[in-house]
Design a protein that fits this description.
Blueprint lengths: L3 H5 L2 H8 L6 E3 L3 E3 L19 E3 L2 E3 L10 E6 L1 H4 L10 H9 L5 E5 L5 H11 L6 E8 L1 H6 L4 H4 L8 H15 L4 E2 L2 E2 L15 H26 L2 E6 L3 H4 L5 H13 L2 H5 L5 H17 L3 E4 H8 L15 H15 L3
Parallel strand pairs: 5-6, 5-7, 7-10, 10-11
Antiparallel strand pairs: 1-2, 3-4, 8-9
Helix pairs in contact: 4-15, 9-13, 14-15
Length: 339
């Protein structure tokens, strides 16, 4: 029997192929980035792995064709990247460039499964390729909160990243291969490294505070860099389906129910998925952004007011349909004063 996901969102099968773990592109300093030169009817990337964005009769990407004049950047993780869209032209940067804020080209500068450290690092590593930057919109925040549940030894100084457990396991195996057995009192001693004890998940309030502080720490880096170029910086707290509304469209109920049968979403992220958690996180981000003089916009309540219950916005709880991308693009243009 065909799954609801395959029936309602066949484009997601192409994203599964694009993001298959056997094809992970490991990249120094970033840990990982997208496959390069990927071609399909759903998603296409350039020679560096950036997704191609579309304007009226034009295309552009950071590692491909670039406009000569100023550009605008749309940064973030997988939602900003456009997971869920049926074509490159349906992503948020493409809809902004084509329809809602077309005066200057928009580049898709997002990274699949990135945290705020990786988002900022991506800009640092590739900003030298770009022409003049007029506007930077960072559409993010969710991954830092989701990853805040990791133990402190995995989060380290700059926050946890997805699949970091596998990374640390591989690094320990590498250390073990290079480790020499020490000599103790004339005999060889067996040396073992015990794995850290499993730590309890920090309380929700602590995770919200941690994620907000980490996010704004890196936004301050964005602000300093943007200030050198004269670009305006805006941070948009990305939506989560359960932060937007409690009653979902019929298609969403089918997709979410099927996904819940195969995933551990509620056991891992159930406490951060409530509306109360979303509001608390938004307030923490807003307060921290105000102190650093960074423009902050929580799109969740605005999106909630803009849609009807039957409007199908999400392919899963974090990623949009084409209609969802279009509605969000219109709200961003109106709310951020983009032309």
């Amino acid at each position: 029997m065909k799954s609801q996901r395959a029936a309602l969102t066949p484009q997601m099968l192409r994203y599964d192929d694009f993001d298959h773990r056997s094809e992970t592109r490991w990249l120094p300093y970033l840990m990982y980035f997208h496959r390069v030169g990927y071609r399909s009817e759903v998603i296409n990337t350039d020679a560096l792995g950036f997704r191609i964005s579309h304007g009226a009769g034009a295309r552009a990407s950071a590692g491909g064709d670039l406009p000569r004049g100023p550009v605008r950047l749309f940064a973030g993780s997988s939602t900003a990247f456009g997971i869920g869209s049926t074509t490159d032209a349906a992503t948020i940067p493409s809809r902004l460039w084509t329809e809602y804020a077309p005066s200057v080209p928009w580049l898709n500068f997002a990274g699949r499964s990135y945290n705020s450290t990786q988002e900022l690092s991506l800009f640092l590593l590739y900003r030298h390729l770009l022409p003049e930057i007029e506007e930077i919109v960072v559409f993010s925040g969710l991954n830092n909160l989701a990853l805040a549940r990791l133990p402190e030894w995995q989060r380290g100084d700059h926050g946890g990243f997805f699949n970091c457990g596998e990374y640390f396991e591989q690094m320990e195996e590498l250390r073990a291969r290079h480790r020499k057995t020490p000599v103790v009192f004339g005999r060889r001693a067996e040396r073992r490294t015990a794995p850290p004890e499993e730590a309890p998940v920090p309380p929700l309030a602590d995770r919200i505070s941690y994620a907000a502080d980490l996010t704004v720490r890196h936004l301050e880096g964005w602000r300093l860099l943007a200030g050198q170029t004269g670009a305006r910086l805006s941070f948009v707290m990305q939506p989560l389906a359960t932060w937007v509304r409690e009653e979902h469209a019929p298609q969403e109920r089918l997709l979410f129910g099927e996904l819940d049968e195969k995933s551990n979403f509620w056991s891992l992220y159930g406490d951060i998925a409530t509306k109360e958690a979303g509001r608390a996180y938004a307030e923490a981000l807003r307060d921290a952004c105000e102190k650093k003089k960074i423009d902050f916009f929580d799109i969740n309540p605005v999106l909630s007011e803009a849609v009807r219950e039957q409007d199908w916005l999400f392919v899963d709880r974090a990623h949009f349909t084409d209609e969802g991308h279009d509605i969000v693009s219109r709200i961003l243009a109106d709310s951020l004063g983009l032309t």
